[in-house]
Write a structure and sequence with these properties.
It catalyses: S-adenosyl-L-homocysteine(out) + S-adenosyl-L-methionine(in) = S-adenosyl-L-homocysteine(in) + S-adenosyl-L-methionine(out). The protein is 82% helix and 0% strand. By secondary structure, the chain is an all-alpha fold. The chain has one domain.
Length: 87
């Protein structure tokens, strides 16, 4: 569970800036990705790219804490029910 949480924290370092740029591109479809990125960095600094980082991490960690144990449980259960599909 610690690994999943740490993985989400690290993944959000990449995911959040790309989401910020994507959302701003949806608001201003005529602006290109590079223009949005440079405008954000110039006017807001690196903090502008990480707007919403904390809330994203707080959303993703509980999801990971449920997702991975549930996946393992369902995988074992499915292997018991359908042994011919096991690898």
């Amino acid at each position: 569970m610690v690994a999943a949480s740490l993985g989400e924290v690290v993944a959000c370092l990449i995911r959040v800036p790309s989401e910020v740029v994507k959302q701003r591109a949806q608001v201003s479809p005529s602006a290109g990705t590079f223009r949005i990125l440079s405008h954000t960095l110039y006017h807001e600094g690196i903090q502008g790219l990480y707007r919403g980082y904390k809330s994203t991490v707080l959303r993703e960690i509980p999801f990971s804490l449920v997702q991975f144990p549930l996946w393992e449980f369902l995988k074992v259960d499915l292997q018991l029910q359908l042994p011919h599909l096991s690898m």
